[in-house]
């Protein structure tokens, strides 16, 4: 959800209970004020009725009938009646129905006779006025809230415009891009500080990236050269005369360690390049064709171990990825399966529309399963292993949003690696 939409949503969520509470408070206030006005009206009318009674005292058989809302009754025995307000229901001859009324009942003594005066005032008109006022206020309140929300959206959009500009430049930023990104400067202090900080951060990031890229490029050449020289010199030394079996064995072990060091160096440099996102070029790779090609290139070593390869490969699945990294991803899984498979066993390779899987027969892992894809975790019995092959597989898969899983089925002694595209 966008920041603007979230702000508007929170504003509406805050306004709703306020509006609801305001409606209840308004109705309570109007009702209370209406009662106050009716009571004042009845009290004033009571004064007038008493004055008229003083001017025209009623006789025993002649009770005044001035208005349907005024009732005067003689009270016996003599006892004072204190003024009291009552809510009740009475018949309205105009509306021809029962309506809620407010009644004031008070005692009055004149000529030695006690009378009870009952004055009534209908709520109906006041309720209609109160309802009309309430509806009008609610409509006005909703209109004001709507205008405030619209104004907030417009003002917020304008205030946050520099921030959106910064976000746009961040989306365009590439650490390996040809040009530096300059973030827009705003007159808002916070946005200005943010732009300056991002400018400095992008400059340092590009500088560090350039230094790391230069290091990996130099290391790739400078470290491989002496290793190649050592390998050649050991080959020449191995051909020298007068060497005994112990000397030849030492030379052979040294050659194996140099090969392992060279492979480790290449893997580490490749990991560094992957971490630095130096493989920007991408092609549409047909995974089925690629796996078939890699298996064909590896047939000699497979045949040397007496391993049978069963292929169930579809030619359809394709993925947009760097071709070199695709080679490394699937070749490392194939090498791992062949290297750890029992001699004379079988390997099953499957490529479907959404996944690649390879299984081989072999002993369980000599280390915890959760360490399988960590760097430098390897079977110590295999001296040529660098412990980086499966780490490369995991890095490449993560970069392209693929998921690599491993399962060992102990009942049939089979290792299963699966890559979900």
From TrEMBL:
Organism of derivation: Spirosoma linguale (strain ATCC 33905 / DSM 74 / LMG 10896 / Claus 1)
Keywords from the named record: Kinase, Membrane, Phosphoprotein, Plasmid, Transferase, Transmembrane, Transmembrane helix
Organism superkingdom: Bacteria
Gene Ontology cellular-component terms listed: plasma membrane
Residue stretches in coiled coil: none
Domain Histidine kinase: 218-421
Keyword Membrane: yes
PANTHER family: SENSOR HISTIDINE KINASE TRCS (PTHR45436:SF5), SENSOR HISTIDINE KINASE YKOH (PTHR45436)
InterPro entries assigned: HATPase_C_sf (IPR036890), HATPase_dom (IPR003594), His_kinase_dom (IPR005467), HisK_dim/P_dom (IPR003661), HisK_dim/P_sf (IPR036097), TCS_sensor_his_kinase (IPR050428)
Reactions catalysed according to its record: ATP + protein L-histidine = ADP + protein N-phospho-L-histidine
Molecular functions per Gene Ontology: phosphorelay sensor kinase activity
Bilayer-spanning residue ranges: 9-30, 129-151
Pfam families hit by this protein: HATPase_c (PF02518), HisKA (PF00512)
Protein name: histidine kinase
EC number: 2.7.13.3
PROSITE patterns found in the cross-reference section: HIS_KIN
